[in-house]
Amino acid sequence: MVIPVSALNRAIGAMLERSFALAWIAGEVSNFTRAASGHWYFSIKDAQAQIRCVMFRTRAQYADFIPREGDRIEVRALVTMYEPRGEVQLNVEAIRHTGQGRLYEAFLRLKAKLDAEGLFDAQRKRALPAHPRAIGIVTSMQAAALRDVLSTLARRAPHLPVIIYPAPVQGADAAGKLAAMVQTANARNEVDVLIVCRGGGSIEDLWAFNDEALARAIAASQIPVVSGVGHETDFTIADFAADVRAPTPTGAAEMASPARALLLRDLELRRVTLARNFSRVMERCAQQLDWLSRRLVSPIERLAQQRAALRQRQLRLASAAARGVMDARARLDVLAARVELLSPQRTLERGYAVMLDAHSGAAVRAPGALAPGKRLNVHLAQGSAQVTLADVQPCLTQGF
Question: With b meaning 16 or more CB within 10 Å and e meaning fewer, what string describes 363-379?
Fold first, then answer.
């Protein structure tokens, strides 16, 4: 199988990137060139060898210094291959003067120690207040970062008061004074968010922000802390201990302050929404009022309606009473007819007679009560008569 040169170089480059991790490499600068594109091209060498390096503009712009011929430097780089020429080179991500390795190792040891204690845990970090009443700044009064922060706050939130807690940001006693100012801000409790910041510099320049006492003061702060130290590629222990890390001091000011224009826009939106909702409520109330007004009746009309209803009720009662009387009369007529049908007079008119003992007035009901010479009062349908029995003949059969 025949392999093209480009494919071979590409394979070698991929193998190099997999085989060599990102590392710090020391050497002396030679053949430094700064291209119009902003990229840096140079070599680093020692007594026995040299290797070409490239630092692209996106990384070079954050460097604290421009290397010169003969400078002793350390580069943090990845081993790659420039395929068109088949040359191995270092793709540089960061650069520093020789001797910073010892500080970086101390930085890593302290970071590991505090991380193991849980000082950097995400669970203990607090969200920044959406609407702070005041903002505090811990930095030097002479720092350029202070001017950047103040100008950003004046642009974004001119309505917010700003309190400065001055402390040196560089030097032997800077870390202790920075920590003391963080504690002072907490003791005075006059701000809702605290910015700890300074501009960029070398690792030595930023070393005050890699102090253990400052890190513990920031972690113990009851006020949320935004760390804005150096450039975007700079990391300090203070960044890890803070509640929020900003890439720059200006970024810290933007994170800590609400944009006034956005607040006003949100306020206007809320005002419009409130007015619209209020208008809808008023419309519903007006509609309900119209509906209730249509149901509302004047006292005179209500009395007239009640009188009409009372008359109708009286008519219904009178009609019901008349029907009751008629029904009662009908029932009475039926009962009277029944009584009439069963009355003694009707019975007499059918041919019957009532015989009463003339002496006792008792009704004669049995033949045994009859005897010759007995006097009876006989009541007929059309009158009565007194009779005296001449003779009594017993009847052998009963009934008619």
Answer: ebeeeeebeeebebbeb
Token pair for 230: 């150096």
Q: Phi/psi class of residue 118: alpha, beta or left (left: φ > 0; alpha: ψ in -120 to 50)?
A: left
CA atoms of 63 and 202, how far apart (whole Å):
9
Domain around 90: 5-98
Task: Say if 16 falls within a structural domain.
Answer: yes
Identify whether 336 is part of a domain.
no
Q: How confident is the model at residue 389 (pLDDT cuts 50, 70, 90)?
A: confident
Torsion, Cα 139 140 145 148, to 10 degrees, reads 90
- Which residue from 228, 231, 257 is spatially nearest to 243, judged by alpha carbons? 228
Angle at alpha carbon of residue 143, lines to 182 and 256, rounded to 5°: 50
Q: Which of 98, 113, 144 is a domain's end point?
A: 98
Is residue 273 included in any domain, yes or no? no
Angle at the Cα of 255 (from 274 to 62), degrees rounded to 5? 150
- Among 329, 162, 330, 181, which residue's Cα sits nearest to residue 253? 162
Q: What is the pLDDT of residues 27-84, one digit of tens each?
A: 988 899 999 999 999 999 988 999 999 999 999 998 888 888 888 889 999 999 998 9
Q: Do residues 166 and 238 share a domain?
A: yes
Given a contact cutoff of 8 angstroms between Cβ atoms, the answer to whether 59 and 197 are in contact is no
Domain membership flag for residue 312? no
How far apart are alpha carbons 159 and 138 in whole angstroms? 20
pTM: 0.52
Same domain membership, residue 138 and residue 254: yes
Amino acid present at 212? E
Enumerate the H helices of 189-248 as residue ranges. Answer: 212-220, 237-241
- Interacting residues of 347 by C-beta distance below 8 A, sequence separation 6+: none
Beta bridge partners of 384: 379
Q: Name residues whose C-beta falls within 8 Å of residue 205's C-beta, 6 or more positions apart in sequence.
A: 64, 170
Domain harbouring 250, CATH code: 3.40.50.2300
Q: Is 257 helix (H, G, I), strand (E, B) or coil?
A: coil
Total number of domains in the chain = 3
Block residue for tokens 């002396």 = 28
How far is it, in rounded angstroms, from Cα 184 to Cα 167?
11
